[in-house]
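B., you asked whether I could sanity-check this one before it goes into the benchmark set. Here's the sequence:
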Amino acid sequence: MDLSTIDMKIKQGAYVYAEDFEQDVNLIFKNCEAYNVPKGNRHIVKLAKYCAKSFRKQYSARIKAFDAGSGTSVDIVQETEKKRPLTIIARSADSVSPPTKKARKSPANVVQEPVKVVETKPKAPKKALPRINIRTTGPLPLHVAIAKIKQDFSIRRPHKDLQDWEGACSRLFRELKRHPWISSSKRFVFDAPVPLLHPEIKEAYASKVRNPMDLTTAECKLLQGDIYHGPQEFVDDIARVFANAVIFNKGGHEQGDPTSCAYYDASRHLLQYTRWLSLEIMSQYLSDDSHCEGTAQIGPIFQWNLTVSNLKDARKEMDDIVMKQPIERSEEGDRFTWMETECEKLLKSLRHQSDNKRMCFFLQPNYPADYFAYISRPMDWETAYRRLQNREYLTFGEIISDLRLIFSNALKYNGRMKEVDPISKQAYESAIAMSEKLESAIQRLFITVSDRVEREKVEQVVLDREMELAEKEEEERIRKEWQEETEKGEAGTASKASTAKIKLGRRPNIRKAVDFDFPFYEEEDTQEQSTMEVLSKQKAIYEDQQFERLRMDKVTKSLGLNIHHKLQERFSANIWAKQLADKIHANILNRPQKVGQTVNRDETETIKTSGVPSLSNASCVASLLEKHDRSQVKVAIPKVGKKKRKVLKTSISLE
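And here's what the prediction gave me:
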C-alpha cells in the first residue's frame, strides 16, 4: 500500500467508510516497520512511527469535527459532570514550612527570606467523554456499531481486577482477536451484530439464528462482571458466534453463493481453532472426565465441554496435522520460510537467559567416556540448530523428535547416577524442567502450525471457487461478444467473409529502480489477468483455425483438379496407344507379299489362333507396353570384345 494508491482510490470513490481509509493509511506504516525492523533501519522505523502517530492525531481531530458539524449519522451530546472546585490554602509568611534544599546547605549566619506562596486559580473541571447517539435507520460502519455495543455496558473493569478464570478468558479473547481473519480481514466480520451492519437481512437472520452473539458483546459481558459464572459460559458464547455464521450461511453454501461459501468455510475453521485454543488456555480449569467414555471430538463442533478428554482429543488432532506436515524449505542463504521460522522459534524457546544454567548440559556435544555405552543416538541443541540451518529437516516431526531426544537421553544416562553424583542429579533435574518447557512450546507450535495449514487449505478452496466463478463470467461475456460479432457479420454482405481480429496487448513488466533490496519483487499476475490472457489466446487460436480451414479448402480444390487432369491425360494416352497398336496390326495384315516369299509357319499359326499376326520386335514392345498386368521391361546391352569388331546390337529381354 502507498499514498498514490490511496489517492487513486479516493478519486475513484472506492472508500465507503472512513475506517477503510484509516486502515489503508495505517497499513503503509505497518508494512514499513515490518520490512525495516529485520534489516535494522532504525531511522526509517522511527520516521514511520512518528508519521503514524501524526496521522492518528489529525484523523481523530478531523473525524470529531466532521461528526460534530454534520450530524447526519452521529450526534455528539456533551455531558458535563459537576465537580467540586479545587480550593488551595496559601501559606502566610509566619507559617512554618519545611526548609528547602538550598536552605539546608546555606550557612547558619545567612538570614533567609520567607517563602512566598502564590494563590493559584482552581483548574476547570475535565469534560466528560462525549456520548454518541446513533441512528440505526441504515447500515452502520463497523467502528460505530462497536461503539454502540459498548455503550450498553456501563462498567468495563480493568484486567488487573478480574478473577483468575476471568483473566484466562480475557487471554483467550485477546489471542482470538490476533487471528488474521478476525484482526485485519475485511472479508470476515464477527465483531458486531449482523442486523446493525446489514439491516437488509435482519428478518432472514432472525428466522435462522435464535441466539445471536458477537465478539464485542462477549467481551463486554466479561468485563461487566456478574454475568458469566464460569469459563464454560464464556467459551460457549464465543463458539456461538461462529456456529451462528455456519447455520446462517449453510443454505447459501449449498447454492454456491461465493460470500456464503467463504463465511461457511471460515467459520468452520474458526470453530476448530477456538476449541484448540480454549482447551489449552483453560487447562487449569478443566474437569476430569476420565471415568466417562465417549467418542473423540474432532473437527468443527458447535459446543464442547472444558474437560481433560477433550484436551487429549484436540492434541491428538493437532499432532496428526503437524507431525507429518512437510516443511517448505528455502535455499541456503535465503530467508527462512514461515515453517522454518516456527522451527527456529521452537529452538530459541529453550535458550532464554533464565534457562542458561539448566541448558548448559545440552548445548554442545561434550559427552563422557562411557556415554555411547548407554546412548545409541546422541543429540544436542547445536546439532539440531545446525541441521535446521542446512535445511536437513523434511517434516516437523523430525525436529520435534530430535529435541525430545536431547532430554530423554539425559534422563536415561543420568538416572542411574543421580543419587551418587551431584552433577548427574543436577543434569537429571534440568532435563525434567526443560522437557516440560519444551512440551509447552510444542503445544504452542501445534496450535500455530495447525491453524496456518488448515487456514491455507480454506483460502485455497475459496480462491479456486472465485477463480472458477470469474472464468465462467468471463466465458459468458466473451460468448456474448462472439454472438454479437456473428450477428453483425451475417447482416453484412455474404460475399466478403471478414474475420474480426482482436488486438491483444499485454502490459510489459517494467522493473522500477529502487534503492533497497526487495526479496519478493517479481509478483505473479493476478488471477483476472491470467484468465483474460487464457481466454484471449483461445479466441486467437479459434480465429487461426478458421483461417487455416479456408486456406486448406483452397489447396484441396487445386490438388483435386490437378489429379483429375492427370487421370484424363492418362486415359487419353491409353486410348492413343491402343489406336496406334490397332493401326500397326492393320498395316501388317494389309502388307503386300513379294513373289517367291512364303509365310512363316509360326506366323500362320498365330494368325489362325489369335487373329493377330506375329509382329516384329518393335511391334511386340509396343503391344506389351499396352498391357496393365505386364512385368518389368529390362534393356540389356551385350559387351563386345576387343578383337572382334562387330556392330553393337541391342537386344531386349522381357522378364
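One thing to flag: The longest strand covers residues 74-77. Otherwise nothing jumped out at me.
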